[in-house]
Amino acid sequence: MPGLYFGAVLVVLAPVVALERRNAIGRCFKLFHGDFGASLARVATILGILIAASVIGGGVGVAATLAAPPQTASTGALIAAAAVSSGFAAVIGGAVRLLTDPLTVAAYADMRARVEPLSTAVLAREAGIR
């Protein structure tokens, strides 16, 4: 249980390091506990998307294994099944990153706004965006 808690707190570590660059782990804990319920909901949404993508990717891997059983399939069929499974996993992984990275930054911004006054202009200035 402590590992899950620590992992949930550190979901926003990348934006904290990128935008604040100081005391990152302590800052993650402060932001997470600023509004525990809202923070937990944001993190649970991100983790739910990751779990769903993992289940889908695993299902494709199982389907590839069933299509080309290792005991009876030829070497070519095994290579093709592994290539399809790996390719699909790479596509799913990229799609999930395109979805969860902005959600992680939004979760960071929401957590930070619950602790201190914050606007998009402040975040843009900290990120060096003009």
UniProtKB/TrEMBL annotation:
The keyword Membrane applies. It comes from the Bacteria. The keyword Transmembrane helix applies. The chain crosses the membrane at residues 42-66, 78-99. Keywords: Membrane, Transmembrane, Transmembrane helix. This is MotA/TolQ/ExbB proton channel domain-containing protein.
